[in-house]
Amino acid sequence: MIEYLECKGGFKKISRWQPNCWIQVTKPSQKELSELEKAFDPPMDFIKDVEDAEERPRIENEDGWLTTLIHIPNKTIDEDGDSVFSTIPLAILIYNDVFISICHHKSEMIDDFIRWTNRKRIQERQQTDLMLSLFLSSSVWYLKYLKQMNSMMKTAEEALEEAMDNEQLQRTMQLEKFLVYFITSLRGNEVVLVRMKKHLRSHQYDDDLLDDVEVELQQAYTTANIYSSILERQRSGYASIISNNLNGIMKKLTTITIILMIPAAISGFFGMNVRNGMEDWVLAFPLITLITILIIVISYLGFKKRNLF
């Protein structure tokens, strides 16, 4: 889908392209990409790279086009109703009075950014400022999703305190995987921002906006690292608890096995087909049974005193 947006008190759709408008391309078909190439002749190799979700963030000049690729956060809902977090590439291409953004996935961030510009009645912005605004919006949404992850972490932690089952442990591991995606993408975006400063030297841009991007991006990166460290320590703690519980169970099972071996050993000894002088004694069996029970009770009390049972 290709949309043309003009900033007049916020971004609003227009029917066709006008100079300095925002060309927003979302989940484009091959036909739409061909139309885009025919109308503006952008670097198609770069645009095709955006289809790869693992394409690294970067910024470069190509035939007069300033091409930027960053990773933005994304959230989907799986078939079980659980939130799945990931990152997706967003390409921004600038050439004279042409501004194009391309994303091969439907993003909540883009729609929210457009609503925000209309709510704040943002007036016309330069192309570089729009690029920085999208960069800033992506960092803000990283923080929003990180807050949701933190809430999910607390829920999983409370559930694990009540019952340490595999489902909750798997959710914790899944959150750790989401954080790895975020940290890797945020680190790549930081590198892009550093290089972007060099490319922006020859352009006019809002210094305060650039500072805001740096602050929010650094905050998102720091927060993601903190949450990742917390999850890693929690996982190590849960592994230690599981190991201790297993050791306790094995200790009890070993103690029970030793106690059960006592009657087996005594019955085996007196059950041998050899003379022992008690064959004709009527009280032999009750006495042996009583002695066996007495030894079992003494063994049980001894193990319990040493916290082995």
What is this entry, summarized?
By secondary structure, the chain is of the alpha+beta class. 60% of the residues lie in helices and 17% in strands. Helix 4 (127-162) packs parallel to helix 6 (207-270) and helix 5 (166-199) packs antiparallel against helix 6 (207-270).
Number of helices: 7
Overall pLDDT score: 83
- Unreliable runs: none
Largest sheet: 7 strands, mixed
Total beta strands: 7
Overall 3D geometry?
rod-shaped
- Helix percent reads 55-70%
Lateral arrangement of strands in the main beta sheet: 2-1-3-7-6-5-4
Give the N-to-C terminal Cα separation.
69 Å
Explain what the structure shows.
- This protein has seven helices and seven strands, in the order βββααββββααααα.
- It is α+β, with helices and mostly antiparallel strands.
- It has a seven-stranded mixed sheet.
- Helix 4 runs antiparallel to helix 5 (166-199), helix 4 runs parallel beside helix 6 and helix 6 (207-270) packs antiparallel against helix 7.
- The protein is rod-shaped and about 115 Å long.
- The model has no long low-confidence stretch (mean pLDDT 83).
